[in-house]
Amino acid sequence: MFQVDQKKSLPDEVGRQVCEQFVAYKKKDGFNFIANPVTKNGQEDLSEWVCGFPGRKGTLWEGALLKLKVTFPSNYPVEPPAFIFDPPIPHPNVYPNGYVCLSMLDQTNWKQGTTVSQLFKALDKIMAHPDRENPANAVAFFEFCERPEKYNERMRKAAKKFNFVQFAKTYNTG
């Protein structure tokens, strides 16, 4: 199915589990979701994935297709993966460097049985309803709390900017 570089990637069994979880999410919940492992030296590296995360209908992100990198540490599932928007998006729960601030991804809250599907569902939830308990971007959080009209306008502009065409232009940049 996939060739795995043992030195830089996940162990075969864990890599297969990650693949299966991405496929299961896509089939059940991931309408318009895109996920592919990064190719390095001609081999797919199952520890790094480039995803197209669609904005849910009826939210400020509707119509967006956000480029999200998912990286799994070599000791996954003992440690959580990292979710990184690339380019970063202006969201209260996304750090300016693109890393997603999601309690489930925090080392202290991480549970080894957490699936890719559960993580994407949680991400989808905070995209629609930012988590006030875990702000990561001070400007976006301030606007979200104190200037909701400005926040809504900014998110809609960002959603238009991060569309399929933009995603396609940056997709192969890993």
| Cα-to-Cα separation, first versus last residue | 21 Å
| Count of discrete alpha- or pi-helical segments spanning 4 or more residues | 5
Question: In terms of quaternary structure, what is this?
Answer: single chain
Strand order of the largest sheet: 1-2-3-4
Backbone CA Rg: 16 Å
Tell me, what's the shape? globular
Quote the average pLDDT.
88
The number of domains: 1
Keywords: ATP-binding, Nucleotide-binding, Transferase, Ubl conjugation pathway
Family: Belongs to the ubiquitin-conjugating enzyme family.
InterPro entries: Ub_conjugating_enzyme, UBC, UBQ-conjugating_AS, UBQ-conjugating_enzyme/RWD
GO molecular function: ATP binding; transferase activity
Tell me the layout of helices and strands.
Elements: H1 12-28, E1 34-40, E2 43-54, E3 65-71, E4 82-85, H2 116-128, H3 138-146, H4 148-161, H5 164-171
Antiparallel strand pairs: 1-2, 2-3, 3-4
Helix pairs in contact: 3-4
Structural write-up:
It comes from Trichinella pseudospiralis. Keywords: ATP-binding, Nucleotide-binding, Transferase, Ubl conjugation pathway. GO terms for molecular function: ATP binding; transferase activity. The structure is a single chain. This protein is of the alpha+beta class and 174 residues long. The protein has a single domain, classed as Ubiquitin Conjugating Enzyme, CATH 3.10.110.10. Helix content is 35%, strand content 17%. A four-stranded antiparallel beta sheet has the order 1-2-3-4. The chain is globular and about 50 Å long. The N terminus is likely disordered.
